[in-house]
Amino acid sequence: MNAGLISNIMIIVVAITAVSSFVIPNPEMSNVIRLLRFPLMLAAATFGLIGVVLCTFIIVMHLIKLESFGTPYLSPVAPLDRKKLKDTFIRFPMWVLERNTLLTSNKHKSKKR
Prior knowledge:
Helix content is 45%, strand content 4%. By secondary structure, it is mainly alpha-helical.
């Protein structure tokens, strides 16, 4: 007796989604991903892959526009700063990185070894 309401692939996708929801330990991040899942599913159901791409593009545009304490949210990627990309995607050794952050003033620069 097979009702044929949902496919086997859909069951696998829902199971993977349920298991992967436990990967993110931060509850705030988990809630954001859970809330963003619904517009993405609606876009996928309505427009297919193009809807998912457009919805993802809109989310990325919104993240680029955000600022936190006057600093762009996706800094140093969104306004591209090649000097500060050293620790963005790949973790470089500490001796390669600058020792002061954006919040410290210029008069407190540390000396390089």
